[in-house]
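Hi R.,

As promised on Friday, here is the backbone we talked about, encoded as structure tokens. Could you run it through your design pipeline when you get a chance and send me back a sequence?
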């Protein structure tokens, strides 16, 4: 009986995590695409707040091929792939426990936002550690960029989490 109640609780909140996961996938696919990355580098000013934010959204950049023979396509795309996997996992793990206790939109929004900020930080840490130049100092420095990305892009995921059932 307890297992049935637990499954019903998780299933009832799955769509809020599902809409957040879909938004995370779309954000990485669109803003990490080579077309967006090229556009943002050519048409934005990194010294302005808007240009800085648009460039930050391109952080999980992915490529279909690598021009640099020392880097494989997998190494270049590791960050984008890890971000999607960790974001989806955290979106399903965090909101189920949080939203089950407090049923309001603020909890859904903050859980989605926090899940994406954590996913950004962990992604940067793991990608830097297992990437081509895997030093601990580089991993710590990259983590700050990942958390910054997750913080500033996470509100989009938080808003998308509001689209699911409460």
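Update: got your reply. Pasting your designed sequence below so it's all in one thread:
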């Amino acid at each position: 009986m307890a297992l049935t109640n637990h499954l019903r609780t998780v299933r009832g909140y799955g769509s809020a995590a599902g809409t957040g996961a879909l938004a995370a996938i779309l954000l990485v696919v669109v803003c990490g695409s080579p077309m967006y990355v090229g556009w943002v580098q050519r048409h934005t000013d990194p010294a302005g707040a808007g240009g800085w934010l648009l460039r930050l959204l391109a952080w999980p950049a992915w490529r279909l091929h690598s021009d640099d023979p020392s880097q494989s396509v997998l190494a270049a795309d590791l960050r984008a792939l890890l971000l999607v996997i960790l974001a989806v996992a955290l979106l399903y793990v965090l909101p189920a426990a949080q939203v089950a206790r407090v049923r309001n939109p603020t909890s859904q929004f903050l859980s989605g936002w926090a899940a994406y900020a954590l996913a950004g930080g962990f992604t940067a840490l793991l990608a830097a550690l297992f990437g081509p130049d895997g030093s601990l100092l580089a991993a710590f420095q990259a983590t700050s960029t990942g958390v910054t990305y997750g913080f500033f892009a996470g509100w989009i995921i938080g808003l998308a989490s509001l689209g699911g059932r409460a």
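One thing I noticed while checking it: The first helix runs from residue 2 to 31.

Thanks again,
M.
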